[in-house]
Amino acid sequence: MRRGTALFLMALAPPAGAFELALPVDCRLGETCYVQQYPDHDPGPEAADFTCGPLSYDGHDSTDIALPTRAAMAAGVAVRAAAPGVVKGVRDGVADFAPFPAGQDCGNGVVIDHGGGWESQYCHLKQGSVRVKPGERLATGAALGQIGQSGRAEFPHVHFALRRDGAKIDPFAPDAAACGAAGADLWAEDLLIEPGGLLALGISDKVPEFDAIKAGLASPNLPGTAPALVLWAYFFGPRAVDALLVTLTGPEGTVVQDRVLLEKTQALALRAMGRKKRGESWPAGRYRGEVVMLRGAEEIDRQVMEVTVGP
User: Which CATH number fits domain 1-194: 2.120.10.30, 3.40.920.10, 2.60.40.10, 2.70.70.10?
Assistant: First the structure.
């Protein structure tokens, strides 16, 4: 998930002595995980993240830190306490990828009381992974469980909600009621802010099922008799103004080259371009796929991958 020029760093650290947070996950933003959704800063029926972008939905009250695939979730990614405190509540035993009992939208989760009216909540943890108990005192970074997909969750992520005296707080913009306001965040370290990006590329012999991509579909080498070569891209946060530059090349030159316009704003999306086999087999050798995600003239992200085809 290497990002292009559109990402930036949150560099306005909290003042000395202020309440501050560590990243509550054991992964690297922009590499092995990403923020799918931020708290909603639009006071009306629409939605806007703190940058006035679309990475939120109406009434959303948390930072959703996501994994690109269910395979990444299965490998295990720790969720950690963002600040020191005492465990206030715990739930485990809710199945991942399954219906959940009424009132358990959070799935498996942990609530921590940090004192001074501050409280954090961690939802959708993997079933059986929760490691803490009510009343337990925790240091910053203490392991709570693992990222999962329990409760009301459409993708593997941790729903990290922050409250002070019961009021929701966006750690990226704690003093901003509306979007676009400048100010210090609550993070102890600078964090990458991504307006969207590519999660995975692959080359296959047909257009893959979206669910297979989200599960973590691999791209093995292909036989020369493959009926088609298809370059697919899985990405998050596209807007209606975006485009993908798609290029697939092989030993004898360009196989596919196109500019794909994205017609609507979405949370997650899949696009695929390809060509059917002409003749008995594809030229044997290495095939290279490249996808560039653009927002207007600005490059949001770029990824490259290769497979061997034939003989």
Answer: 2.70.70.10
The amino acid that residue 192 corresponds to is L
Closest by Cα among 69, 44, 71 to 56: 44
Per the document, the length of the chain is: 311
Per-residue pLDDT reduced to its tens digit, 152-189: 999 999 999 999 999 999 999 998 888 988 788 999 99
Could you tell me which residues are beta bridge partners of residue 257? Answer: 247
Report the candidate in 170, 139, 150 with the shortest Cα–Cα distance to residue 98: 150
Backbone angles phi and psi of 212, in degrees to 5: -65, -35
The residue type at 73: M
Shared fold status for 1-194 and 197-309: no
Whole-model pTM: value is 0.91
Q: What angle do CA 256, 262, 39 make, to 5 degrees?
A: 135
Q: What is 197-309's CATH number, 2.60.40.10, 2.60.40.2550, 1.10.287.1260, 3.40.50.1220?
A: 2.60.40.2550
Tell me the residue type at 40: D
Residues 6+ apart with CB under 8 A from 128: 92, 93
Distance separating alpha carbons of residues 56 and 41, to the nearest angstrom: 9
